[in-house]
Write a structure and sequence with these properties.
Blueprint: E1 4-7, E2 14-22, E3 37-38, E4 41-54, E5 62-68, E6 74-80, E7 86-101, E8 109-113, E9 119-120, E10 124-125, E11 135-143, E12 148-154, H1 166-169, E13 173-174, E14 187-191, E15 197-204, E16 210-217
Antiparallel strand pairs: 1-16, 2-8, 3-4, 4-7, 4-8, 4-9, 5-6, 5-7, 9-15, 10-15, 11-14, 11-16, 12-13, 12-15
Length: about 220
């Protein structure tokens, strides 16, 4: 495969960028009226975690977030509300198309994204049939400060019966030597065993951070 370079866009840091504060009096669909939303769809520059801020005790409420992952595959997640704090999704959403509540919220709730929660890039499929398998990976901080980043890999494939989406179903593992929790400046690593895809990840970031992820795989095999 040809060398792949992913340069991240700026992350959004807008706690109500998807849905501004609103009272929800019954099981219903929240209005997507934040700064990131247009025409009933919230679109993020990169795939980020969705944060739901409850002003009251919403521990008995489920917020079902629907949208798409970095590959454009439709995904949804049921997020349990919290008491006067932020409940965060485990899936990374590139777009949010609806948020449905299982009942009335205690007071008000709002939905958005926080740069400090990080982001992931679109997964890059690689030639896992290469033999011997070899791949070099690097992450270069080109702008900004204040976060940690690195790369991940998966041995799952989106066409497998148990995997509908890289973002929703694949099991992602941190690359040794390029751990997203540890790297804060330029670093590199390699993978010497077959994998199906790799992606860049910010475990924590800020809106001014820009990182160039480079993936190079040999041509034999």
């Amino acid at each position: 495969m040809r060398p792949q370079v992913i340069t991240t866009a700026v992350m959004s840091n807008n706690a109500d960028g998807i849905a501004e504060s609103q009272a929800v009096g019954s099981a219903t669909t929240m209005e997507l009226d934040g700064a990131l939303a247009s025409g009933g769809v919230a679109t993020l520059a990169n795939a980020q975690l969705v944060g739901i801020t409850s002003d009251g005790n919403d521990t008995g409420i489920t917020f079902t977030v629907a949208g798409t992952d970095p590959n454009g595959t439709t995904i949804s997640e049921a997020v349990t509300g919290v008491n006067g704090a932020v409940a965060t999704s485990t899936f990374y959403f590139k777009t949010v198309t609806s948020i449905t509540t299982s009942g009335a919220v205690a007071t008000t709730a709002l939905v958005g994204t926080l740069a400090a929660d990080g982001m992931v890039t679109k997964p890059v499929p690689v030639n896992w049939r290469q033999s011997p398998f070899n791949m070099s990976l690097s992450g270069d901080l080109t702008a900004g400060t204040g976060g940690t980043f690195g790369m991940q890999y998966t041995v799952d494939g989106p066409e497998d019966s148990y995997t509908n989406s890289f973002g929703q179903d694949a099991n992602w593992r941190d690359v040794v030597g390029l751990d997203p929790d540890d790297v804060s400046t330029d670093d590199d690593s390699n993978i010497a065993f077959p994998v199906r895809a790799v992606r860049g990840k910010f475990s924590a970031g800020s809106t001014d951070m820009v990182v160039k992820f480079t993936i190079i795989q040999g041509q034999n095999g």
